[in-house]
Automatic annotation (TrEMBL):
Gene: yyaC
Transmembrane segments: none
GO molecular function list: peptidase activity
Domain of life: Bacteria
A biological process from GO: proteolysis
NCBIfam families in the record: spore_YyaC
Matches recorded under Pfam families: DUF1256
UniProt name for this protein: Spore protease YyaC
InterPro entries from the UniProt entry: Pept_HybD-like_dom_sf, YyaC
Taxonomic source organism: Paenibacillus violae
Taxonomy of the source species: Bacteria, Bacillati, Bacillota, Bacilli, Bacillales
Keywords: Hydrolase, Protease
Length: 201
């Protein structure tokens, strides 16, 4: 199922955060949350994910239940995505994983946020074959897919991307706040202390 709403709609945060939380509650069998924000800091049009990640890192740094991958400082992109996925599978094998990425779409959909209840297929707009990730994913439509060339993409507004990232960050914070009390308790091995490290790759 996919839900969509324009990022400037005043109901966007409440609408999508509620839908995301309900998706988790339909099968609440996880002990932590992983958010992986895909993109690069080299191009404005592909920086939505890392911008979201950097905003969230200010809120969730060191959080015991929320682990973040992909920021402007340490982005997750095509070159390290597979390695990051492998690390997440090993270190957070019982995590509810939310993926975030920019996407291309039809002209009239630019500015739309899409919450899709299936794994993210990163790079599909650019015909890249990258591994899927996430139990659910959020996409922000940042430009028109029919005009795919670097001259057009370079004209994507940084202000537009920044504003969209702020909305996505707010709805993810709201969702995490609602999901955390519903997480399954993590099994403790002896007297081993829980892992409080929030990492980025």
């Amino acid at each position: 199922m996919m839900r969509h709403i324009h990022y400037l709609d005043k109901k966007s945060v409440a609408y999508l955060s509620e839908a995301l939380t309900n998706h988790y509650l339909s099968k609440p069998a996880y002990t932590e949350i992983v958010i992986i924000c895909v993109g690069t800091n080299r191009y404005t049009w592909d920086s939505l994910g890392p911008m979201v990640g950097s905003r969230l890192s200010e809120r969730f740094e060191g959080h015991r239940h929320v682990h973040l991958y992909g920021t402007l400082e340490k982005p997750v992109h095509a070159l390290n995505l597979q390695k990051t996925i492998a690390h997440i599978a090993k270190s957070h094998n019982k995590a509810y994983t939310i993926a975030v990425d920019a996407a291309l779409g039809q002209f009239y959909k630019i500015g739309t946020l899409q919450l899709v209840e299936e794994p993210l297929q990163p790079g599909v707009s650019l015909n890249k074959e990258l591994p899927p990730i996430g139990h659910i994913h959020l996409k922000g439509i940042i430009n028109n897919h029919s005009l795919l060339n670097h001259k057009v993409m370079e004209h994507t507004s940084l202000t537009f991307i920044d504003e969209m990232s702020a909305v996505i960050s707010r709805l993810l914070v709201k969702s995490c706040q609602d999901i955390i009390p519903q997480l399954m308790p993590a099994p403790q091995l002896g007297n081993e202390a829980p892992n409080h490290l929030s990492s980025a790759t």
